Amino acid sequence: MTLYAPRPPARVLGVDPGLTKCGLGVVDGVPGRPPRLVAVGVVRTAADDDIAARLLAIEQEIDSWLSEHRPDTVAVERVFSQHNVRTVMGTAQAGAVAIICAARRGLPVALHTPSEVKAAVTGNGRADKDQVTTMVMRLLRMPERPRPADAADALALAICHLWRTAHPAVAARQHSMSGGGT
Amino acid sequence: MTLYAPRPPARVLGVDPGLTKCGLGVVDGVPGRPPRLVAVGVVRTAADDDIAARLLAIEQEIDSWLSEHRPDTVAVERVFSQHNVRTVMGTAQAGAVAIICAARRGLPVALHTPSEVKAAVTGNGRADKDQVTTMVMRLLRMPERPRPADAADALALAICHLWRTAHPAVAARQHSMSGGGT
């Protein structure tokens, strides 16, 4: 009989959505311990393939990651506004596929803005990509830089989600500082 | 033995994607005859539901329309640019769900821009919503205006697809006139 079972690790799949490169990263979090890298990768689809084939390829890959790694939650980047509408479209489409893959399995989906992710991982909501990658490497004790940057961003999203869930008060403070809305 | 079998009717599901209202319209096209209305409707999701629940509801409804009406092709509105990024996001997300539902069943997906649809149905790529609805009613001999406008737009998309497929030369001319790109 286990009276004092430790809180089980929470496993998060982070998705940095994109049509050309969709970053995927799985991280385990145990309270009081550094997050642990489980898997990292990227789904690439060819720009000259039609949109249906691209979204289907992304769906199949995310589905296979969900089957293999069985995360408890899927964290997806929430995009508010970007200058390039075409990029926003691709991000929204790939993000919708990730959300629907998770929802179909009954997994909770969490959305975090880029500034929330940066603030969680580096302490600065306006950190650059390089700084985020460096912190992700340190936090997960990775010997090499995850490439491409989308893979590092997916890991940062997963870490952000673990920390915001573990420390809601800190997260709320960061949220209000980073000017995030709904 | 049938030597001169007539070309079978083509059935198209048109999808006017949106999170709050996603228009769906099924139209049959037989060469040399007016298009025929099969079904029209709209999927509504509540703005205060989370995005995962909304996309899942849209997926389930589109899947059920595909099972019931068995279209040969799914035509989805292609969005290039709009001023409101939030609207673009919702359109892109709901559109991605429609595309993935079709692709998963191996159905071809066709994308048409709003100006292509307007040009096909009214002859004017800059026609207003009211004009599009009026022409859809006439073409499909509907006794009442389809409501909401998203439902009429979905029917217009399906008609546009039937006509552009039947008359590729005309479609190409309209396409170049409407300034459509990839």
Summarize the structure.
The structure is a homodimer of 182-residue chains. Chain A is globular and about 45 Å long.
Largest sheet data of chain A: 5 strands, mixed
Assign the CATH topology of chain A. Nucleotidyltransferase, domain 5
Question: Number of helical runs of chain A?
Answer: 6
Radius of gyration of chain A: 16 Å
Oligomer: homodimer
Work out the largest interface and the residue count of each chain: A-B, 29 and 29 residues
Parts with pLDDT < 50 across at least 5 consecutive residues of chain A: 169-182
CATH class of chain A: Alpha Beta
Shape of chain A: globular
- Counting helices, strands and paired strands, the structural category of chain A is alpha/beta
- Work out the helicity level of chain A: 40-55%
User: What is the CATH architecture descriptor of chain A?
Assistant: 2-Layer Sandwich
* Lateral strand order in the biggest sheet of chain A: 3-2-1-4-5
